[in-house]
Amino acid sequence: MSTDMPASAPQYQNGPQYQGAPQYQNAPQPQQVPPAPKKKGIVARILTAIIGIAVAAVVVYGINYFTSDAAQSKAGDCASLTGTNTKPDYKAVDCGSADANYTVGQVLDSTTAKCATEYYDEYTETARRGPDSKLCLVPNLVEGSCYDLENTTQMGYPAVDCGQSGTFKLVKLVKGSADESACADASPLTFPEPKTTMCFAPNE
After folding, report:
1. What count of other Cβ atoms lies within 10 Å of the Cβ of residue 139?
2. Rounded to an integer, what distance in angstroms lies between the CA atom of residue 9 and that of residue 6?
3. Distance CA 156, CA 98 (A)
């Protein structure tokens, strides 16, 4: 059997003519890929870290301020001081409270500043991350009561038995005046803020 191909393939005169690929008017367009985000430079990262640390420091400072009675104290406020001179415990209280054993006379700008007179008791509070405070305090004493003024270990001056030797009696208390002459023969202690004069006489 012969496998020869015909000399020529038949020609179709009326066959479909293809001029090219079909054209679609509404063909979908390829979506544009958004550019990759730029990476933060080293300077921007450092600045961001510094800002974060600064904000955290402000927050910690604020927390320490608002949780410290001493830092928020103002002249004229009252306080309860307990504990020892080396480890005092300061708490703001109402001036009508029985626990109010001090009145804030001065609020100093720094812990190295000095009170107006040597008669003030001082309270200093330092914070690792927060405001430092130094207060000049006037003891709240009662006229006619006796006190151990030489007590240098405990905070405050609780009233003692007037028969106890080495104690002093507050024979006169003048508020609104800092005048030593008001004490006559008694020993005066004067405070300029708030103006107060205390006159003491030793117990025999």
Report:
1. 21
2. 7
3. 13
Contact partners, residue 156, CB within 8 Å, separation at least 6: 81, 82, 101, 102, 139
pTM of the model: 0.65
Q: What SS3 class is residue 200?
A: strand
Q: Closest Cα partner for 111 from 124, 127, 129?
A: 124
The end-to-end CA distance of the chain, in Å, is 156
Q: What is the pLDDT of residues 116-150, one digit of tens each?
A: 999 999 988 876 555 678 899 999 999 999 999 88
- For 85, phi then psi, to 5°, come to -65, -30
The set of residues, in sequence order, having a beta carbon less than 8 Å from that of 57 and lying 6+ positions away, is: 129
> Alpha-carbon distance 137 to 105, whole Å?
5
